[in-house]
Amino acid sequence: MLACSTSTASSVSNKKTYEPTWESIDSRPLPAWFDEAKIGIFLHWGVFSVPSFQSEWFWWSLETKNPDALEFMRKNYPPNFTYADFGSQFKAEFYDTDLLADIFKAAGAKYVVLTSKHHEGYTNWPSKYSWNWNSLDLGPKKDLVGELANSIRNRTDLHFGLYHSLFEWFHPLYLQDKNNSFKTNSFTMSKTLPELFEIVNTYKPDVIWSDGEWEAPYQYWNSTEFLAWLYNDSPVKDTVVVNDRWGSGMLCNHGGFYTCSDRYNPGILQKHKWENCMTLDLGSWGYRRVAQFSDIIPIEGLIAEVASTISCGGNILINAGIRSDGRIDPIFEERLRQLGTWLKVNGEAVYSSVPWKFQNDTISKNIWYTSKQSDSEKVVYVFVLNWPAQNILTLGAPQPSSATKVTMLGYYDSFLWNKHSSSGGIDIIFPYIPPSQLPSMWAWVLKLQHLID
């Protein structure tokens, strides 16, 4: 188990001054909106979206002589074509931020995290610290971050956040500091920190999703100094949340919410607030033109990820790679809209829920639990991922009382039940429901009231 406080507030009243130490930084309560939100959308986008081959690490693959990457370039581009030449082809000509905002709202998301800069160093905003390698000077000729931020805020109630890579693979100052064993920090002081201050002051994100931290210690990145400013003096000091990627060895140890690793889903309750950042394309974070249908997570799998994550106290950040022209792939849009349809029925068990004393059932598989306190009574929600055989679901964890009531979210009638003879649990009898009357096509949520606590 991970040990840390899970105390929250809807916004953090900034009466305390935070010092640039982990002890002080980690004492800040996490704003409650983040725990209540549960569902976020992650967007990986950059110059790597032009070749859209292998992954967002394509430039790294080229420089490290990956044979598939080299063969791709040999077949499709002139001999002297460099990665930087992709920049002029990154045009975002169909970038419709109002449409994207509507899709994310329809998906049931409560926050969106857009890539502001990946490890390639290209900034999706007109950064003063990325000359001729930003979205205004090269490629789209527009502020990609600002346009989405405006649409999200004007059309939805979603929180807007930004991903930012601390390092850049091939920046000369970073390589110089690296060669000096990070005893100098020219790159941090002239590039990383100015960019972070710039995006916070300009776009006022409620999430700073840091990455690219693993090669250097937090002291090199001046992470605690930045976070102290963020919590004390920034324009988002009361609402902002951050992750745990602020230096080598920080994962799962320091920061706001923990990510621990990509696609982290421990399957057991965690003591510290955490997030499962995962991908719709199981093979890449960035958009891949060669992705096959089998590479895309089915809606049943996505709902299972949501249920298992929420049950164990996490949020889920669902990633889609965007095409270089600014469009989200139709199959990604379909998955997000399917999830939104499911959440319209079952969101009561997701948003603002808390973990129950059990996460899985003691008898039946593919069951996850959440709970809520309602009118001095605890309500328990049961995520049923597979329709029970013979229409009888046996649960060992819930202990029924004579007054126990069982309903299905989205369905009008109560379910019959019996006390399970051997476990003291409950046998729930599912009625024969015509498909046209099923509240959901993929997974179903039962609401249990008046249990023996």
TrEMBL record:
- Enzyme Commission code(s) on record: 3.2.1.51
The record ties this protein, via Gene3D superfamilies, to: Glycosidases (3.20.20.80), Golgi alpha-mannosidase II (2.60.40.1180)
- What's one Pfam family the UniProt record gives for this protein? Alpha_L_fucos
Glycoside hydrolase family 29 N-terminal domain spans which residues? Answer: 9-348
Domain Alpha-L-fucosidase C-terminal as annotated: residue spans: 359-449
Q: Which GO terms describe its cellular component?
A: lysosome
Q: Which PROSITE patterns match?
A: ALPHA_L_FUCOSIDASE
Q: How does it assemble?
A: Homotetramer.
Give the family from UniProt.
Belongs to the glycosyl hydrolase 29 family.
Q: State what this protein does.
A: Alpha-L-fucosidase is responsible for hydrolyzing the alpha-1,6-linked fucose joined to the reducing-end N-acetylglucosamine of the carbohydrate moieties of glycoproteins.
This chain belongs to the protein called alpha-L-fucosidase
